[in-house]
């Protein structure tokens, strides 16, 4: 009878990676040596030298996070690194000042999305996650929420990046005239671009208020002190408040907050799951996060 006494990597060198592949993912090929010994009589001598090569396919991801040093972007970089994903961040201020082990594992590129040389960030990427967005004048909001993302989606498509994930926003059930602000028109323009250029892989996450620890000028603002209890209260009173949800703008009060870690995990789920694409609501973001939170 043959018993396998040990299975160990044949060599200590890292897995080789092959490009390009017909599928839109890169795979690493690992070679294992299987050492065998014969436990029963009839076979003399030590046969430990026998080895069998096994080739295992391990999907390897390289994600580019646009705005990886922001509030949501940092959480995405950290979560992605923890799942063994190779991460590059692009932002104007580059590497954040905080010292953490995940920070050392991210490739920090300093640049403006409107002027960057995409060769520096997109070559070989398997996914782009955009956290570009923000407030300001009407023009500024249209530019950063809309034009910046439209530009990034086009660049990702041109470079053959197979997946684009946009951090967008819940519409809060707002009346139409408020949805016509630069913030929301920019977001919806960016969403349309993602869904039209990436019909079978594009992801739009629409969170409401996101809580967690936001760093501003080296200080942490604990948004979770408000967000976490509010999320629990709204969940507990869901049945009572449901009739109110038909009222215009009611979601400003009723839309449950979501933790920054859940948004980050939902993004990681989007990066790693080929079947995850389309528009995702607050509840669906939480469900997606739960799938990869272990
Ligand atoms: N926070 C919330 O409660 C919430 C709720 C719903 C949706 N969202 C959406 O989630 C996304 C992320 O929000 P956040 O709170 O994490 O925002 P944030 O902290 O302000 O992060 C924005 C990131 O974008 C980068 N950035 C801005 N302009 C850039 C440019 N021209 N080129 C390159 N990078 C640029 C910023 O870095 P630099 O300034 O260094 O360039 C920063 O890293 C936004 O789209 C927001 O609308 C947020």
Automatic annotation (TrEMBL):
Transmembrane segments: none annotated. Residues 67-194 form the NAD(P)-binding domain. GO terms for cellular component: mitochondrion. Pfam families: NAD_binding_10. SUPFAM superfamilies: NAD(P)-binding Rossmann-fold domains (SSF51735). It comes from the Eukaryota. GO terms for biological process: response to oxidative stress; ubiquinone biosynthetic process. InterPro entries: ComplexI_NDUFA9_subunit, NAD(P)-bd_dom, NAD(P)-bd_dom_sf. Gene3D superfamilies: NAD(P)-binding Rossmann-like Domain. One of its GO terms (molecular function) is protein-containing complex binding. This is NAD(P)-binding domain-containing protein.
């Amino acid at each position: 009878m043959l018993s396998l006494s040990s299975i160990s990597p044949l060599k200590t060198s890292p897995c080789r990676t092959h490009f390009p592949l017909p599928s839109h993912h890169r795979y690493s090929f690992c070679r294992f040596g299987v050492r065998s010994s014969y436990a029963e009589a009839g076979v003399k001598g030590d046969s430990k030298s026998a080895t069998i090569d096994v080739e295992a396919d391990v999907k390897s991801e390289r994600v580019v996070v646009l705005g990886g040093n922001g509030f949501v972007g940092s959480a995405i970089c950290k979560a992605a690194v923890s799942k063994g994903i190779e991460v590059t961040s692009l932002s104007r201020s580059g590497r954040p000042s905080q010292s953490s082990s995940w920070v050392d594992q991210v490739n920090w590129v300093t640049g403006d999305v409107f002027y960057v040389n995409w060769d520096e960030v997109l070559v070989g990427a398997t996914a782009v996650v955009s956290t570009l967005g923000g407030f300001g004048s009407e023009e500024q909001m249209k530019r950063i929420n809309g034009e910046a993302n439209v530009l990034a989606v086009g660049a990702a498509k041109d470079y053959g990046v197979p997946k684009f994930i946009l951090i967008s926003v819940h519409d809060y059930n707002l009346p139409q005239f408020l949805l016509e602000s630069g913030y929301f028109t920019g977001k919806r323009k960016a969403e349309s671009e993602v869904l039209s250029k990436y019909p079978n892989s594009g992801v739009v996450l629409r969170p409401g208020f996101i809580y967690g620890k936001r760093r501003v000028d080296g200080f942490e603002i604990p948004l979770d002190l408000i967000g976490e209890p509010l999320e629990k209260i709204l969940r507990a009173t869901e049945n009572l408040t449901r009739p109110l949800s038909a009222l215009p703008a009611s979601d400003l009060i009723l839309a449950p907050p979501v933790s920054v870690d859940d948004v980050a995990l939902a993004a990681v789920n989007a990066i790693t799951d080929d079947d995850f694409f389309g528009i995702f609501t607050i509840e669906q973001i939480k469900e997606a996060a739960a799938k990869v939170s272990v």
